[in-house]
Design brief:
Layout (H helix, E strand, L loop, with lengths): L2 H9 L8 H9 L4 E4 L6 H11 L3 E5 L3 H13 L7 E4 L5 H12 L5 E4 L1 H4 L2 H8 L3 E6 L19 H8 L4 E5 L4 H11 L5 E4 L7 E7 L4 H10 L5 E6 L2 H13 L4 E4 L5 H12 L5 E5 L11 E6 L6 H8 L9 E7 L1 H11 L4 H19 L4 H8 L16 H4 L4 E3 L1 H13 L6 H9 L4 H5 L16 H13 L3 E3 L7 E3 L1 H8 L5 E3 L6 H10 L9 H18 L3 H4 L2 H10 L4 H4 L7 H21 L15 H14 L4 H7 L4 H13 L7 H5 L4 H13 L5 H8 L5 H15 L2
Parallel strand pairs: 1-6, 1-7, 2-4, 2-5, 3-4, 5-6, 8-13, 9-11, 9-12, 10-11, 12-13
Antiparallel strand pairs: 14-17, 15-16
Amino acid sequence: MDIYASLKKFFGFSQFKGLQEDVITSILNDNDTFVIMPTGGGKSLCYQLPALMKEGTAIVISPLIALMKNQVDALRGISENHGIAHVLNSSLNKSEVHQVMSDISSGITKLLYVAPESLIKEEYVDFLKQQKISFVAIDEAHCISEWGHDFRPEYRNLKNIIKQIDNVPVIGLTATATEKVQEDILKTLGITGAKTFKASFNRPNLFYEVRPKTKEVEKDIIRFVRQRPGKSGIIYCLSRKKVEEIAQVLQVNGIKAVPYHAGLDAKTRAKHQDMFLMEDCDVVVATIAFGMGIDKPDVRFVIHHDIPKSLESYYQETGRAGRDDGEGYCLAFYAYKDIEKLEKFMASKPVAEQEIGHALLQEVVGYAETSMSRRKYLLHYFGEEFDEVNGKGADMDDNTRNPKKKHEASDDVVKLLSVVRDTKEKYKSKEIVNTLIGKENAMLNSHKTHLQPFFGCGKEKEGSYWMALLRQILVVNLIRKEIEQYGVIKITQEGLNFIENPYSFMMTEDHVYSEEDTSDIITNAKNSGGAADEKLVKMLKDLRKKVAVKQGVPPFAVFQDPSLDDMALKYPITLEELSKVHGVGEGKARKFGREFLTLIEKYVEDNDITRPDDLIVKSTGVNSGLKLYIIQNTDRKLPLMDIASSKGLEMPELIKEMEAIVYSGTKLNIDYAIEDLVDEDQQEEIHEYFMEAESDKIQDALDEFDGDYDEEELRLMRIKFISDVAN
């Protein structure tokens, strides 16, 4: 089967995104492969599709249990076979582990997700040695590197474990990596000859904004969230205490928000995560430290209440927005105080680690304070050039939308640099500013600085002005911070040259945000595709929520947002039409489609809508033929399993067809099949239940009998009941 046919069959897409096709071809050709692809670039499809196409089971190593669970749910949604994907980790009990192993042995399982800790277990390694493994994929591969933003020591040993299992191709995948980290990954995994694919880190649909953090920050956040009713968002905070506070403030203000941090017990965390995935709450407030393995495609905004420790973390966290290519708004609140707090945390660490930490922090400061295109600054950090005039998403940040005022500050830079030099490079930022504005304190007096001729040479300007200038010249490396003597400012060679030969230095004035400023950004940042019927989209979303709850899967595992939008453009009313909708393959259409089609058909009728012609496909009357076949063969008392398999149906599908037959008023005689399942007394008990029940909902019956009967038995009994009583 060719790669495009497989893509359509399994995922319902007709084309690949970016580098996906090249990566998949490389994996199908058994090459070691290294993929650097930003969050939202469709990284997981790169190993999921070849795993579904190749013989054997692919092992996927991932550090995030939650993310594995999401991917397994989604894969089960595209297949009739529950065992197609499994997780093997500490959350399983003995019988579940046994089930996983039996599915792998019998060739049902195409993808096995494991945490690196589980892979160390000898029993698992011994078991996997005997199986046909197609390849090993290591997701979040940056965890291998100490220079990565999320180093995990257990990743260091993966190379040896993989070699023990089998000599198979190794696929490394990461969503963020500087050159240093890339080199580290290839070496540590022992795949230096791997084919490397690096996608662009540009996410054109994300809008970046940094606002000054004031005492009003909580009001700002509430205002921001309220302007986006019903949209999903994540708010990151540095401390657990702050997470709880903000979640509470939001709740009090009528916003559906839940907290999420490592201090909550596992049950609460799982519950809150599910609420977010199932759209029972709109906002999750989380600690940055907690990598929320949330693969939710329609997160519409990510807010940083506190700025993160590195631009890689920032890129990762903002990257959780707009994965479906729809609107994604990334708002960070920035105060230099937060940077100082982060620096204090680092003071206790070994010097080498501090050096890495400070270097990473300065990049964050530069990003927050820069007046150039934020996108350009961010991409430059990942070694990618960006054309800020014609590049995709060029106007999608606050600096390009509202250019900040600048003025020539060359003379002030000379003044500031001279003070650093003439006070013998022994002060931190605050003392330097105090010297400039002529504010005495014990520290300055002890060094007799207050008696120097330059003391107060900048008093015509505010302290905040000098502090801002100091940070801006720090970013361009005219001064630097000493690491050994914590936070002391030193002048660089470039700074000394500047004093001798000053050149133009345009200092950015802090931009003051007003409400009007942001309101136009909010409307412009929307990136909606076609003109879908909004009213129908809302109805479809409500139905999806119902279906999802019933199926016990997240709403997007039923249909993703773009699929619902496409339905509201095309108005499909048959399964065949539905399988032509974006992101819906045949399996999906069959699995979840019926209720959606019913809703759309009624909506089209009630609102007198003309459907697009190119979608109307003549029905071949297949269904009526199938119904006739079922009626004839139940009359012949053929076993139901035989009827199903001869038509290529799973048992639940046959039951569904039989339900359709009896609900449309035709009698079906399946007494012979029921007698094998439930005895006479039990039949009577169920018959009485349906006689008195307020609704014929199977769930109500399951609740009533509390495990005495399974769903199949009750559905077959309901068919018999309707057939006997109503037809």
